């Protein structure tokens, strides 16, 4: 019995180490969100920090609200891509086991 508890603890520690590595990897990753068929691009890290915004000059020829909408849409796309990538990576580590609602790893 004691051996099985020790084995479970070792497995838990190994999983914790893998989760830490994945968190560090995800924090460093960068994704690109786009809108307007690539007219606006936002590069965001896994920690939801915006690194770069690229806007095609033609966007400014339109109504200012058009540019604002494209920027917001590109940022939202980047956020969704970070979430999807994070969920996919964590699912790989947990063997597809779903996390409880509200438990958003790693951030």
UniProtKB/TrEMBL annotation:
* A Pfam entry, by short name: YbaB_DNA_bd
Stretches for region Disordered: 1-24
The record's family statement is:
Belongs to the YbaB/EbfC family.
User: Could you tell me where this protein is found in the cell?
Assistant: Cytoplasm, Nucleoid
Q: What is this protein called?
A: Nucleoid-associated protein ACFOSU_17700
Keyword Cytoplasm applies: yes
Principal location class: cytoplasm
| InterPro entries tied to this protein | YbaB-like_sf (IPR036894), YbaB/EbfC (IPR004401)
**Membrane-spanning regions, if any?**
none
Q: Which residues form the signal peptide?
A: none
Species whose genome carries this gene: Salinisphaera aquimarina
Organism classification? Bacteria, Pseudomonadati, Pseudomonadota, Gammaproteobacteria, Salinisphaerales
